[in-house]
Amino acid sequence: MGKTVFITGASGFIGSNLAKRILTTEPDTKVIGLDNMNDYYDVRIKEARLAELQKFENYTFIKGNLADKALINSIFEQYHPDIVVNLGAQAGVRYSITNPDAYIESNMIGFYNILEACHHYPVEHLVYASSSSVYGSNKKVPYSTDDKVDNPVSLYAATKKSNELMAHAYSKLYNIPSTGLRFFTVYGPAGRPDMAYFGFTNKLVNGETIKIFNYGNCKRDFTYVDDIVEGVVRVMAKAPEKKNGEDGLPIPPYAVYNIGNSNPENLLDFVQILSEELVRAGVLPADYDFEAHKELVPMQPGDVPVTFADTEPLERDFGFKPHTPLREGLRKFAQWYKEFYME
Q1: Which of 96, 263, 264, 292 could form a disulfide with 156 if both were Cys (CB 3.0 to 4.6 A apart)?
Q2: Does the keyword NAD apply (predicted)?
Q3: What's the DSSP call for residue 208?
Q4: Are 311 and 223 in contact (CB under 8 A)?
Q5: Can you give the pTM of this predicted structure?
């Protein structure tokens, strides 16, 4: 590409994988990464991701906060990014119930700062993370980006829907090409410890009981991180077209896509596959008694019973559909876990 890409949340799970992919496959592209390196989860994982990226000459890392408007403006002024990928956000549904301030600061004020900077320092394309959480408890599946999503069941979901609305307004007002990506349950090596597969693993290793919500009657569209990154890279390269309407004013160059595996897995099946792969990798002993460490419990606030992505528009516009089988992805996670924590 030979361009400058600014990635926020660059030491995060998706951000670090995206940065590494670009730096590896596009050696003449400069990547500027921003992350506040907060301790929402084990900072050693973020530090390990960052160390991987700092091996690349074309990578510049800035430690700082999305909500710091002066910092964001100074980055745009100094580096003039061509493409901005906003992945920096406070993630997690449950944490939004106990610490709502973090979500307003990062997801609302932080995203507003990015939009303002894209307005004052024009960019070719703003790509930003939304979430499957915006669908709330929609009964219709699979979830389509044409569905009405006005009933969030968590503050986290509300902030992500707000991001889509704010991006639309800026696309309309200032002709900024923007694409929102609704990610579906992303997993893989060096992922987020607050995600179920990682939390389950930690508990099982420590001999604790894992809670399976809604008595196991949950389905999740688990999407392997490499599939997410492939989707983001393709979207980055193809911004929505700028054009004017009959009134002579810009039609917003704005789009939203789902990126999911489009194949929801039952939580009990998922736990079974995870346990088999943890044994295979040597994280757990072959005679581990899983039944003794499982507890079926009711649904919890902010959660939804099913997530299921309609990815037809992504296939149509970018020729790509996530495809990594759950077992393959969990095998890679189990191998990484063994190396990172046990060797």
Answers
A1: 96
A2: yes
A3: P
A4: no
A5: 0.95
Q: In one letter, which amino acid is 123?
A: V
Residue corresponding to tokens 């003794």: 292
Active-site residue, 215 included = no
Domain interval for residue 98? 4-191+223-262+308-324
pLDDT tens for 98-115 read 999 999 999 999 999 999
Query: Per the structure block, which two tokens stand in for 72?
Result: 């964001």
Total count of domains within the chain: 1
Flag whether 25 is in a domain: yes
pLDDT value at residue 59 = 98
Q: Considering the domain boundaries, does residue 271 fall inside one?
A: no
pLDDT at 329 over 80: yes
Residues 6+ positions from 316 with CB-CB distance below 8 Å = none
DSSP alpha helix (H) spans, the chain:
13-25, 43-53, 69-79, 95-98, 100-103, 110-120, 155-174, 196-205, 225-236, 267-281, 312-318, 326-342
Question: Can you give the CATH number for the domain in which 173 is found?
Answer: 3.40.50.720
φ/ψ of 58, rounded to 5, equals -85, 10
Cα–Cα distance between 323 and 105 in angstroms, integer? Answer: 35
Average pLDDT rounded to a whole number, residues 162-173: 97
Instruction: Assess if residue 270 is contained within a domain.
Output: no
For the sheet with 125-131, list strands across it: 59-63, 30-35, 4-8, 83-86, 125-131, 178-183, 254-259
Residue 176 belongs to some domain of the structure: yes
